[in-house]
Amino acid sequence: MAHARLATALSAVLTLAGVALAGPASAAGGPLAGTWTSIDTDGSNQTLDIMGSGGHVYSMIYVDEAATGACDGNPATITGPGFVDGDVVVLNGALTCLPGGNVFRSRITVGFVHDSSTDTLTDDFGITWHRAG
């Protein structure tokens, strides 16, 4: 079921991309706004900062302290808009390896499903994210 919602959200990314990228996310906090944390499958710490109203789009920054597969174990970031469709938000951004800022991929898409009963996010990789704090 989550994959069907993610597919719908990906369609929304393509539909909304031209409009949503034209302006920044609102400064008011939406229901997903805040800092989220998780442990990657390789054991590294990850953070996800979600900013904005969440009406149709958030600003998102995903940080993995050791991106084993993508950046040979160096830190990595994905920065870009997060498009909302119900309880799904899809981050569409550039994956950058650190230090040095080498762009690994020009755009990468990562989906997150919000479970309001536990206030957690589950990403495309099956990793559960919790609010920091």
Condensed summary:
With 133 residues, the chain is an alpha+beta fold.
Set down the secondary structure blueprint.
Layout: H1 2-20, E1 34-39, E2 45-51, E3 57-64, H2 68-71, E4 76-85, E5 88-97, E6 102-115, E7 120-123, E8 128-131
Antiparallel strand pairs: 1-2, 1-8, 2-3, 3-4, 4-5, 5-6, 6-7, 7-8
Write up this protein.
By secondary structure, the protein is of the alpha+beta class. The protein has a single domain, classed as Lipocalin. The protein is 17% helix and 47% strand. It has 2 helices and 8 strands; from the N terminus they run αβββαβββββ. The relative contact order is 0.21.
Notable traits:
single chain, 133 residues, alpha+beta, Lipocalin, eight-stranded antiparallel barrel, 2 helices, globular, disordered N terminus
